[in-house]
User: What shape does this take?
Amino acid sequence: MSLARRIIPCLDVDGDRVVKGVNFVELRDAGDPAQLGARYNAEGADEIVVLDIAASRDRRPTFLETIRRVAAELAIPLTAGGGIRSTEDARAVLRAGADKITLNTAAVARPELISETSLEFGAQAVVLAIDAKRDGDQWVVMIRGGRDSANLDAIAWAKQGVALGAGEILLTSMDRDGTKSGFDTALTAAISSTVSVPVIASGGAKLPDHFAEIFTAGYADAALAASIFHDRIQPIRELKEFLSARGIPVRLPC
Assistant: This one.
């Protein structure tokens, strides 16, 4: 029997509010993270991801409190990240209520952070977040909220991250982010065919067909979206019923 494909709403937080933009810019307020988390939990989401897009140390207490507030509303797994630079940072996020952490910019700067957190908390708790942007015939890794290029090939970085101990990859197409034009199937296929861990596709979802496409082709184990859920463009329950009717294994909400 095939494993159920997961639908994951993402809460990008700045301070104590959820924000959303297009191609990582033009941010707008999208609501309270705890209220949105509670709504998605009730609607049948499989997991929730909370990302601190500010990711500065002086805002760490605010972010940890946001994790606590969201976790208190959930009966599903919670992944959280943004600015995690050490096992101590990771431990604080997990103690606040997250089940998994995401690593991004800090892992690019110091790849051994992946190994350190994986050894400390288990590979299942470490998600390598990769923000990728098309550059000619390849994809490059972008860091610092998509502002700077890491001059790394995304496929090679995914392979290295898994070898170091990442148990999952959260793959965001910067070219598709917020555009509602569909997931980047070429990027997702290139990464998922290279690694042995689950890949979460992110960036560009709007229509149920977009989810069906990324799942039917076997490119992704999970699909993440934000604005279409925040703005009630696509209810999670209806999305799952659509996918189930097309033979895609999902966990239908009760």
Summary: The first helix runs from residue 33 to 43. The radius of gyration is 17 Å. DSSP finds ten helices and twelve strands in the chain. The mean pLDDT is 91.
